[in-house]
Design the sequence.
């Protein structure tokens, strides 16, 4: 082969490689990540008693969103709980935000959101039911107490380690968890068990810590099947929970379950 022919072949090969690189770059530039599967609004409490956990919870939940293909907005601004804003979301997570810390109009908007079948996850202090927290003359949100299984909060024991025992290991929220797991928490107590009105997914094992007022039957995670996607998670006070792998599984699967579109199965 002549020297000129060799040069031509080399130039042609280089030109072809360059063209392919441009084509591939162009194709890659045109590829976009798919839109998030659904949107989650987290409204957290401004109560100082929960600020340490909430500070850890924001990056924790944002990581879950990034890894599991949903979008998440995180705020402490309860004014975001209104019909127009909630219409943008498929899931509402009530993080330590007590029901009595919402205005009447905010309560009405959230009640409508849940009743229409959207996802709701109440975490720990979201379950502070009872008239004992209200100023005189303030209207009580009885609907929320009924959502919680018609129970009233009573004082909790000191923060300590204890065990959560699963009761339903087939439910999408709990099927990836072990039969029991240990966490550090306040172990909220109530005036009675919500079991007659809810579907219990897990309970506290009162033999593994020192209760303040033993309940005996002590559900800790449950759904209210009157509504399509309503879930309460009683644990969640201590900031260390946001680095607990079992809590990460629980919250991931809770959010994914709550975000399932209507008609898409359990």
Sequence:
């Amino acid at each position: 082969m002549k020297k000129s022919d060799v040069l031509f072949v080399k130039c042609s090969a280089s030109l072809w490689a360059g063209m392919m690189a441009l084509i591939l770059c162009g194709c890659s530039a045109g590829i976009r990540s798919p839109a998030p599967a659904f949107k989650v609004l987290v409204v957290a409490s401004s109560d100082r008693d929960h600020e340490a956990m909430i500070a850890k919870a924001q990056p924790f939940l944002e990581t879950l969103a990034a890894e599991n293909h949903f979008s998440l907005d995180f705020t402490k601004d309860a004014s975001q709980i209104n019909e127009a804003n909630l219409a943008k979301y498929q899931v509402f997570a009530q993080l330590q935000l007590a029901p009595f810390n919402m205005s009447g109009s905010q309560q009405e908007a959230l009640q409508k959101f849940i009743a229409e079948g959207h996802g709701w996850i109440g975490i720990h202090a979201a379950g502070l039911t009872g008239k004992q927290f209200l100023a005189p003359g303030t209207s009580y949100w009885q609907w929320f107490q009924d959502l919680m299984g018609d129970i009233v909060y009573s004082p909790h024991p000191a923060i300590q380690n204890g065990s959560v025992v699963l009761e339903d290991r087939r439910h999408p929220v709990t099927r990836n968890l072990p039969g029991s797991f240990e966490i550090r928490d306040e172990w909220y107590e109530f005036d009675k068990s919500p079991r007659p009105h809810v579907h219990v997914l897990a309970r506290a094992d009162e033999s593994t810590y020192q209760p303040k007022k033993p309940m005996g039957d002590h559900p800790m995670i449950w759904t209210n099947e009157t509504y399509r996607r309503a879930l309460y998670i009683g644990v969640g006070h201590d900031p260390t929970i946001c680095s607990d792998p079992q809590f990460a599984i629980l919250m991931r699967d809770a959010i994914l379950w709550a975000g399932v579109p209507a008609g898409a199965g359990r």
User: Anything to note?
Assistant: The chain has one domain: 39-130+140-258. The CA atoms of residues 96 and 125 lie 4 Å apart.
